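User: Could you check the structure of this?
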Amino acid sequence: MGPGGACWRGGGVPGGLKRWLSSAAPAPRVCVVGSGPAGFYTAQHILKHHGGAQVDIYEKLPVPFGLVRFGVAPDHPEVKNVTNSFTQTARSERCAYYGNVTVGRDVTVPELQQAYHAVVLSYGAEDNRVLGIPGESLPGVHSARAFVGWYNGLPENRHLKPDLSCETALILGHGNVALDIARILLAPLPLLRKTDITAGSLAALACSKVKRVWLVGRRGPLQVAFTIKELREMINLPGTRPVLSPADFTGLENAIKDAPRPRKRLTELMIKTALEKPVEKPVEVQAAAPREWGLKFQRSPQEVLPSADGTRVRGVRMALTRLEGSGDSAKAIPTGDVEDLECGLVLSSIGYRSLPLDPAVPFDAQRGVIPNTSGRVEGVPGLYCSGWVKRGPTGVIITTMNDSFDTAQSVLEDLQVGTLDVSSSREGFGAVESILRSRGVRPVSFSDWEKIDAAEVARGKAAGKPREKIVDPQEMLQLIGH
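Assistant: Sure, the predicted structure tokens are below.
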């Protein structure tokens, strides 16, 4: 339950709610832009706590669920179970889904504001932060976002052809996405074959020569952003061994005495892994040279180094750093020393970034968010935002859920106190449909998506996978007869 939600329980129906439930009042029409977790949780909360509201969800792709489909690692199927509750929401008679509609191009935000009493922008972070260093555009350098999109079937990344013919890959970043990528690069193929990873990326990984992955961060072990579950999974990955330098962890036991419990446990696991003596293995097992991965600290990328002929990446020049301050606020200051790390593949995992959607919507380019107070967009009554475009691209699905409930609560409060005037009825999708038709845009319904879903599951079954994702939007549209 979101903040403030509890006050609507208890004896009897609050006066405002009685008025909503009477048939005389026009039903509030709410539009949500984006069908990822932020969009669905916002819709879910409004529908649950307002008996009359109608919610329409718009999505630029034909298929729903955003980063649950395109961000969550293929070998983490349990995290994707939230789509079951999203499906229940979409099937509600007071909810409709319109895929294949790009807001800002096919229909503008002001046009949506004309058609709805409230518009909630929940379209997430569609871009990645750039390193801003020389050589960043060399072949062999990719953003984590594009690489994750490639193995997860995001249509815009389907043509990515990462060169996996090198032995060493370098991932810049110490977050969960960086660990996801390292795990996918090093996981035994039989493990990946049972997941919904795309057929194209599975084929490429089957030919991969990558056997060593370094995860490099600007700060130290006490500032890593990944969580213990992901670290433990990486340490226990079959056929790989962790390479952590004991020197990075000496004396840290004292530093974490008073640290919060999650940080303490995470650091203890790294210390244990770094200082543990490897179990003596028979010579023939060692000769098989397992794949390996490691964490490197206090190194900040300065330049991507080109190969002799300048056609691709051969390494990254790192500035060595020292830390000023402690804990999460510690800053990495270059020492003046540099070090070159050899690699043939660079994946930059330094964060996602939201983009402005429509000139009519205020946008803080510096912070990459829509300026808002509790989800109410500053200076634009009736416009709201939730999820990453509201608070920046951090946190897991549960964080987004609470954040979206918070925005939904703002919409409900504004309906209750009359800030949102529902006395005049709005046409909702009726008005938008004629705009889309005039622009030659055909939306995809939720039952259309269910046909695509069924086809993917059937294809997956034939291959012994939970699903085989269709990565070409044209193929999706052909399948449903568009």
